[in-house]
Amino acid sequence: MLTLAPSVALSWVNTVLAAAERQGLARTDLLARAGVPLARLAEPRWQVDDITRLWRAAADLTGDPAFGLNAGRMVGPGSFNVVSFILLSSATLRSAIGLLQQYQRLISDGGRFQMLTGEPQSWVVYHPQQGDLAFSSHQVEAVLAATVSVSSWVTGQPLRPVRVQFSHQPMADLAVYAEVFGAEVQFEQAFNGLLLDNAVLDHPLPQADTELASLHRAHASAQLAALSAPVPLRTQVAQWLAGALDGSVPGRAQAARQFGLGEKALARRLLGEGARYSDLVDGVRQQLACAAVAGGAESFARIARRLGFSEASAFNRAFRRWTGCAPGDWQQRLPSAQRSGFPTGR
Predict the structure, then answer these.
(1) 16-30 pLDDT tens trace
(2) I need a labelling partner for 77 at 20 to 30 A (CA). Which of 40, 249, 256, 264 fits?
(3) Domains parsed from the chain with CATH numbers
């Protein structure tokens, strides 16, 4: 059985989209360059490889060598969902980081934090955990910049690391790093991290609330348990198909290999969950087709080719079967706001 790829919450995806939009880049253009369907914005979590594609596309299209830094420095509590409230109500920044380690999966599987305690300073180390694609350095820079931003928000005052280091070469002008971190920044080091004074880490937080923190942790623990629950095979196959439909339709044999099963075993497992492979293919095609037609960024002919239809007429017949009308007629019936970028994800 295939282990599910690491994933990230949509709140972190929206951090990238918002940073790109602040530089005048439309999310439809960004998603198209990244090769990510618009329909993915309706999903609560993305695979890590998809957000890596998004980071790469954003850096390319904006031409901003400090894109990751600029995205991370603008991060606020909204990017961390319930985890934000856990951090805010913690007793100290050190305990907040400890809780971040515990609940980080609710934000992203794409990395882990580690605290290396020393005297009189301690390292907060970030270990990227990529999928099949190598992380963009902008991702790593955004994480450390966001850590400083959120820590400043939690403590109520600007956080000034003693030192910052990255394992990669500098991406932007050194003055930008100095502005973002307010500290010495070193590159091509053994790990990515922030060196903080213990006095800062152990200072009582202004909004510490033991009872409230306990309530937030209970809520987050329930979300974490739900996230860790086994995912039905039909859902895994549908998620895989959404990314694998690219000019051709993967056959059942290819899907079976992807999930470490024989064809008959795959069919039997799906049937046990009330599904057939052909129906999953059709359902995913419908979802992607409707999202693409609503978005309006692609021609119908291009959508048809991308979804593996041999010709436009076959796509039109399928679309009529799904919606009861031709793609153009269906698009015109949508509200104008929905046609301009389905779904907004805001």
Answers:
(1) 999 999 999 999 899
(2) 40
(3) 7-227 (3.90.1520), 233-339 (1.10.10.60)
